[in-house]
Specification:
Length: about 450
């Protein structure tokens, strides 16, 4: 029993660190749905949802994962991936079983993202007050509410807090990322189901759209969203939006949509000051609960400054380490653990679109000009789609940026290629092998290791 608990704890800490080390799409695709199963005699078993994930992690992330685990346990660790479908996606809400069938396909709110779990300070006070105002008086305070700011500063947390409170007030809430909205729309158009799309998005009491910077450069989606916006707004339905920048800085957005986004209240979240970072750590320690001294929390709050997600990852890591070695968690020990994270972070070389293209053309024996050009034979077309798929998987590039990298293809083309390869990879073993090999090449550990 103790052994199982500690495997779970170790893995939780490892995920905290991996989340800092791999990019967000990669983390979501390959690591978010995993769990620690057992740890014995240097063998660490990780539960993964399917063969596909197992093979990917095995080929591409094994050495990184073993390094993280070894760092955490201070023992040489060999990792093993085991397929275990009991794992649930963590963000899935417990409400799931009780919601009406018609809503079942809506992305669900994370029950942890509430107003009471949100710590306020000068960096986010206005955004918090505005969000709370909207949740308490939807459709009648600020409409839309527009929250912007950098990554990991609590935008999604606030947006979902509005959603959670409104669901509790029996409102029909739809939370969606701008990316999902775009994909839904493209799919509806392809399948001639735009009427159903309209019904889905225009029949709600409240629409929460996360990360609207994604609409940039997507003309059709921008226009469509403009109409969704108007219809909801005219009916006094509440709209709340987050973005990584203010409306006026979103490039390539229809002008009339941009001006709508500024109609209500535009507010930002900034990087938290030391007091707020400390308060967040204290709240987290209390919530878990973790027995941790004030000086250690202060040390973490001093060292990790930019991003609340990183702050939480660091806390998890420090705590897990102390539990493992069963020593007193002193500031000096915490400093050592955090230093290891910082060292590892600088080693991870970023994968760029150019590197991916290079790897694909060498695997398919083509030239970069072929990828960017108009050749349409089956092999070139496949190589192009694989490139799009890999850039999407491995980098933070938007569909539009990927299209530009590949000689000016439309975002819809990129989105289609991504979905096609994502599904082919499950059905065509030879393609899967080929893509794995390319990916492996991208993740070769540098000699500095
Ligand atoms: P963003 O959407 O801005 O990238 P998130 O909302 O996903 O950031 O926040 C990242 C993590 O930090 C989440 O786990 C969130 O709960 C936590 N977090 C962010 N801001 C706060 C806060 N003010 N108080 C407590 N937790 C916070
Ligand atoms: Mg977010």
């Amino acid at each position: 029993m103790t052994e199982i608990r500690s495997a779970q704890q170790i893995w939780k800490a490892a995920l905290g660190e991996l989340q800092i080390q791999v990019n967000a799409p990669n983390y979501r695709t390959w690591l978010a749905n995993t769990a620690g199963l057992s740890y014995q005699d240097g063998q660490f078993a990780v539960a993964v949802p399917n063969t596909f994930v197992a093979e990917y992690l095995e080929k591409n992330q094994r050495s990184l994962i073993e390094r993280v685990l070894t760092g955490l346990t201070r023992h040489e660790v060999r990792v093993q991936f085991r397929i275990d479908s009991y794992q649930q996606y963590p963000a899935r809400s417990i409400r799931e079983k009780n919601i009406p069938a018609q809503q079942a396909s809506f992305p669900l709110l994370n029950p942890k993202y509430t107003f009471s779990s949100f710590v306020t300070g000068s960096s986010n006070q206005l955004a918090h007050a505005a969000a709370l105002g909207v949740a308490q008086n939807p459709g009648h305070s600020y409409n839309p509410l527009f929250i912007y700011g950098g990554a990991g500063l609590g935008k999604t947390h606030l947006l979902q807090a509005i959603g959670n409170m409104s669901v509790a007030n029996n409102m029909n809430v739809l939370y969606v990322s701008a990316e999902k909205y775009t994909n839904d729309l493209m799919q509806a158009i392809r399948e001639n189901k735009t009427e159903a799309f309209r019904n889905k998005y225009r029949s709600v009491d409240m629409l929460l759209v996360d990360d609207v910077q994604f609409f940039s450069g997507k003309k059709q989606t921008g226009e469509n969203f403009f109409h969704t916006f108007n219809e909801l707004h005219d009916a006094n339905r509440q709209i709340a939006i987050t973005c990584d920048r203010p409306p006026r800085s979103i490039a390539l957005l229809p002008e009339r949509l941009r001006s709508r986004l500024e109609w209500g209240l535009v507010t930002d979240v900034q990087a938290p000051d030391f007091e707020t970072r400390l308060a967040i750590l204290q709240a987290r320690a209390k919530q878990e609960p973790i027995d941790i001294s004030e000086d250690v929390l202060e040390l973490i709050a001093l060292q990790i400054q930019q991003n609340i997600r990183a702050l939480e990852g660091s806390l998890n890591r420090v705590v897990a380490y102390a539990r493992l070695v069963r020593t007193m968690l002193t500031p000096a020990l915490a400093a050592q653990v955090l230093k290891d994270i910082a060292d590892n972070e600088t080693k991870a070389a970023p994968v760029t679109p150019a590197l991916i293209m290079e790897a694909v053309v060498s695997s398919f024996q083509l030239t970069p000009a072929d990828l960017k050009g108009r050749k349409r034979d089956a092999e070139t077309a496949l190589a192009r789609q694989v490139t799009m798929y890999l850039i999407r998987q491995e980098t933070e590039c938007s569909l539009a940026e990927i299209g530009r990298e590949l000689g000016g293809r439309s975002p819809a083309t990129v989105s289609y290629a991504y979905q096609k390869i994502s599904s082919d990879i499950n059905n065509i073993p030879s393609l899967r092998r080929k893509i794995f090999e390319i990916q492996q090449g991208l993740h070769v550990v540098s000699p500095a290791d």
